[in-house]
């Protein structure tokens, strides 16, 4: 299946910490973005072809570094205060899976820190060898490009660092510098280009979306005999649902979308999706660009205003939820035109859980009796955001919902869940086929924990609440002997168990109002 | 007053100036650098009081480090707590002994041993653990060597060859009041005292330009010091607000 070794699982629930090896994962990194795409993102594009650098790249890289460290306290402080204690060295799933020395969080940070020291600190200017400072060369840039694209920005290292140093902040800064010298990543930057041009990551145009939701309405009606609406671009609905575009067609994502629709249908809350904001994921975060992230976020604001909604709800998507929960108010706020009785934005799980608690949903848990579930805490939900109104709500609410709709639930080992959760291996802009090797190796710790509960507790399925996790798992877990259908959406489980009482959605079809044409 | 006294007097004045000035400059830099986004590592406190409590647990008990690696935590905690006790004991060279200070003297005296022990453990890791060996620069080793040498020379004076403590106190008393460097003959010319003090001055000088900045730096770490309330309270940095005000997308489009 692959020309590299797939790690073996023991089923013991933990991975041995490998001895460090140098250069195991040395490569050219993912495909590089062409000048056209750099231009669309307002990055410098005065370089010849993908893979070449802009003129005076060194000066421009250092200027960008100075600019970023002046604008981001995290970067400046994190570059200065690491004591190289090594607490993080065994915490990265990519290090565990590959044993490459440069995949230890501190070593990954040092790729940038060494250059920072050389040009911006007294010790590095005058005693470079002593403090491990190096000149910025093309080789260093190539190393940045390779190894900063072996970081999924999952922030697991930041949990264990005594100073809270977050490698994600460093790898975002590195990627932003690379974008400014001609080494942009094709996968992320082309996707962001599609968002700006078409409205979502997958480049699904409006007509395709209408076609999809119409098909879904037919499917659900065939399945249940009930007309569940999937409203798109409808003004005056109460809720704007922003969900990852993968929910419109990928498996098991789409089953999640069906779940959201059924919950809205059953609760009688009117809702709509929007072709302008037909994507929740914000890849601006992956490339560390505040400006890009803001531009992507402003679409959500625009859609909310255009469709005159009262609330914004986000679908199951990890990075999307981090940007939504932590940054949306910052980037695209203030949202004072929305109904202030609800948090802005809300997670679909917060919505569903409150409806379950209020007794508005009739549930038949036995519908999920063919499964024993475990739950994968997605990194950006677990370590970068919250649900509910108390710290740690993001761990409880998904589990509450799963337990409310399923009889069999088992957690994976404690050091692999909650804020110590292991990444799926595909986050942060790594969900691209040109990075298959790192994705396969990086999933090892998660696969090991999953293997443990499948072996010892009879777990059959793992639920996830992130589009990237779901895509990565279905593609990569088969390398470890799991099957694609063992990965499910949480709202897929809700969808299975929900007993529909209403015959028709509260929301009228717009064409019903217009009068039937046929 | 001797030549050595003048030299050491000037050295300590300079070292103090560099330490205080350097750290102040760094803190000013951290303070003035905006934190444009809320990035606390969750589960994070939702109130300011909660943040203070979280920071207290981190700074005093090294909570995250404890979760991460128990051996490392043990050596690090041993070193830092001992260092505090030793530092408290040293205040007697600068001020009058109160009841509390008198009570703490013996703790500070024996903490010298645990301090060196903790440092030795930390240094051993740099050789024995391949991951830590890989990430260590020469300066990381030197820093530990320096601290061990300071601790060792201090222990020698406490337990092996005593120096004239009263005279040392008079010397530093003189420095503090910007008087002469000790009226009664200045600094005792014991080689161990001189080595000890030289290394301490060196440590003070490199403090602001080295990783020792982790001590004040941790208070500025956004992943630890931010309140997790982005939905309730809008958080916008100055430069981001300017983008918004001028209706621009990119910084280079801003009217300056």
From TrEMBL, chain A:
<keyword id="KW-0411">Iron-sulfur</keyword>
<keyword id="KW-0408">Iron</keyword>
<dbReference type="InterPro" id="IPR017900">
    <property type="entry name" value="4Fe4S_Fe_S_CS"/>
</dbReference>
<protein>
    <submittedName>
        <fullName>(Fe-S)-binding protein</fullName>
    </submittedName>
</protein>
<keyword id="KW-0479">Metal-binding</keyword>
<feature type="domain" description="4Fe-4S ferredoxin-type">
    <location>
        <begin position="73"/>
        <end position="102"/>
    </location>
</feature>
<dbReference type="InterPro" id="IPR009051">
    <property type="entry name" value="Helical_ferredxn"/>
</dbReference>
<keyword id="KW-0004">4Fe-4S</keyword>
<dbReference type="InterPro" id="IPR017896">
    <property type="entry name" value="4Fe4S_Fe-S-bd"/>
</dbReference>
<keyword id="KW-0813">Transport</keyword>
<keyword id="KW-0249">Electron transport</keyword>
<dbReference type="Pfam" id="PF13183">
    <property type="entry name" value="Fer4_8"/>
</dbReference>
Automatic annotation (TrEMBL), chain B:
<keyword id="KW-0560">Oxidoreductase</keyword>
<feature type="transmembrane region" description="Helical">
    <location>
        <begin position="141"/>
        <end position="160"/>
    </location>
</feature>
<keyword id="KW-0812">Transmembrane</keyword>
<feature type="transmembrane region" description="Helical">
    <location>
        <begin position="6"/>
        <end position="25"/>
    </location>
</feature>
<keyword id="KW-0249">Electron transport</keyword>
<keyword id="KW-0472">Membrane</keyword>
<dbReference type="InterPro" id="IPR023234">
    <property type="entry name" value="NarG-like_domain"/>
</dbReference>
<dbReference type="InterPro" id="IPR051936">
    <property type="entry name" value="Heme-iron_electron_transfer"/>
</dbReference>
<feature type="domain" description="NarG-like">
    <location>
        <begin position="64"/>
        <end position="215"/>
    </location>
</feature>
<keyword id="KW-0813">Transport</keyword>
<feature type="transmembrane region" description="Helical">
    <location>
        <begin position="191"/>
        <end position="209"/>
    </location>
</feature>
<feature type="transmembrane region" description="Helical">
    <location>
        <begin position="72"/>
        <end position="90"/>
    </location>
</feature>
<keyword id="KW-1003">Cell membrane</keyword>
<dbReference type="Pfam" id="PF02665">
    <property type="entry name" value="Nitrate_red_gam"/>
</dbReference>
<dbReference type="InterPro" id="IPR036197">
    <property type="entry name" value="NarG-like_sf"/>
</dbReference>
<keyword id="KW-1133">Transmembrane helix</keyword>
<protein>
    <submittedName>
        <fullName>Respiratory nitrate reductase subunit gamma</fullName>
        <ecNumber>1.7.99.4</ecNumber>
    </submittedName>
</protein>
<feature type="transmembrane region" description="Helical">
    <location>
        <begin position="110"/>
        <end position="129"/>
    </location>
</feature>
<dbReference type="GO" id="GO:0016491">
    <property type="term" value="F:oxidoreductase activity"/>
</dbReference>
């Amino acid at each position: 299946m692959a020309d590299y070794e797939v790690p073996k699982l023991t089923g013991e629930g933990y991975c041995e910490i490998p001895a460090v090896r140098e250069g195991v994962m040395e490569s050219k990194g993912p495909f590089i973005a062409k000048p056209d795409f750099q231009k669309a993102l307002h990055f410098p594009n005065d370089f010849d072809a993908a893979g070449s650098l802009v003129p005076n790249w060194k000066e421009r890289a250092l200027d960008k570094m100075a600019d970023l460290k002046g604008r981001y306290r995290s970067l400046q402080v994190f570059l200065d205060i690491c004591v190289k204690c090594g607490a993080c060295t065994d915490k990265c799933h990519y290090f565990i899976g590959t044993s490459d020395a440069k995949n230890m969080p501190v070593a990954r940070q040092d790729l940038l820190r060494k250059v920072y020291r050389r040009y911006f600190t007294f010790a590095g200017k005058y005693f470079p060898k002593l403090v491990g400072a190096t000149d910025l060369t093309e080789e260093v840039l190539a190393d940045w490009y390779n190894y900063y694209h072996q970081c999924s920005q999952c922030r697991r290292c930041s949990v264990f660092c005594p100073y809270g140093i977050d490698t994600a902040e460093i790898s975002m800064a590195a990627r932003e510098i690379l974008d400014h010298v001609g080494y942009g990543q094709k996968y992320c930057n082309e996707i962001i280009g599609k968002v700006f041009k078409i409205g979502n990551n997958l480049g699904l145009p409006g007509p395709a979306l209408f076609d999809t939701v119409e098909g879904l309405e037919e499917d659900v009606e065939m399945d249940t005999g009930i007309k569940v609406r999937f409203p798109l671009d409808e003004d005056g609905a109460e809720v704007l649902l922003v969900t990852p575009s993968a929910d419109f067609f990928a498996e098991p994502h789409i089953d999640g979308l069906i779940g959201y629709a059924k919950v809205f249908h059953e609760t009688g809350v009117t809702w709509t999706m929007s072709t302008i904001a037909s994507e929740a994921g914000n890849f601006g975060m992956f490339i560390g660009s505040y400006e890009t992230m803001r531009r992507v976020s402003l679409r959500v604001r625009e859609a909310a205003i255009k469709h005159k909604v009262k609330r914004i709800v986000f679908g199951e998507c990890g990075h999307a939820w981090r940007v939504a929960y932590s940054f949306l108010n910052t980037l695209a706020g203030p949202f004072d035109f929305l109904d202030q009785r609800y948090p802005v934005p809300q997670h679909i799980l917060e919505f569903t859980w409150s409806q379950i608690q209020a007794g508005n949903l009739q549930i038949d848990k036995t519908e999920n009796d063919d499964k024993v579930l475990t739950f994968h805490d997605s990194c950006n939900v677990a370590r970068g955001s919250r649900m509910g109104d108390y710290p740690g709500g993001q761990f409880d609410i998904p589990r509450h919902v799963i337990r409310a709709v399923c009889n069999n639930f088992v957690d994976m080992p404690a050091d692999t869940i909650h804020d110590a959760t292991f990444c799926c291996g595909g986050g942060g802009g790594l969900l691209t086929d040109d990075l298959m090797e790192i994705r396969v190796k990086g999933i090892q710790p998660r696969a090991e924990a999953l293997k443990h509960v499948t072996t010892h507790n009879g777990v059959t399925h793992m639920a996830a609440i992130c589009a990237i996790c779901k895509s990565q798992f279905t593609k990569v877990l088969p390398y470890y002997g799991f099957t694609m259908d063992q990965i499910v959406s949480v709202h897929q489980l809700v969808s299975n168990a929900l007993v529909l009482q209403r015959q028709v959605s509260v929301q009228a079809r717009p064409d019903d109002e217009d009068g039937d044409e046929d | 007053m001797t030549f050595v006294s003048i030299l050491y007097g000037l050295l300590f004045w300079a070292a103090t100036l560099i330490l205080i000035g350097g750290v102040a400059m760094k803190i000013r830099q951290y303070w003035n650098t905006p934190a444009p986004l809320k990035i606390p590592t969750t589960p994070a406190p939702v109130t300011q009081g909660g943040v203070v409590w979280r920071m207290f647990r981190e700074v005093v008990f090294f909570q995250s480090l404890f979760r991460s690696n128990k051996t490392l935590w043990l050596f690090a905690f041993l070193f830092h707590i001992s260092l505090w006790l030793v530092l408290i004991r040293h205040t007697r060279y600068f001020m009058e002994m109160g009841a509390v200070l008198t009570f703490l003297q013996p703790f500070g005296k024996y903490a010298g041993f645990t301090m060196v022990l903790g440092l030795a453990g930390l240094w051993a890791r740099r050789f024995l653990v391949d991951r830590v060996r890989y990430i260590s620069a020469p300066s990381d080793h030197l820093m530990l060597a320096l601290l061990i040498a300071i601790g060792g020379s201090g222990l020698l004076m406490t337990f092996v060859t005593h120096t004239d403590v009263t005279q040392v106190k008079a010397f530093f008393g003189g420095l503090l009041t910007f008087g002469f460097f000790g009226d009664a003959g200045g600094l005792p010319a014991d080689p161990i005292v001189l080595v000890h003090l030289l290394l301490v001055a060196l440590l003070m000088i490199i403090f602001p330009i080295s990783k020792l900045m982790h001590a004040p730096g941790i208070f500025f770490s956004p992943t630890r010091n931010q309140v997790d309330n982005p939905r309730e309270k809008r958080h916008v940095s100055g430069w981001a607000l300017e983008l918004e005000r001028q209706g621009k997308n990119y910084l280079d489009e801003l009217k300056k």
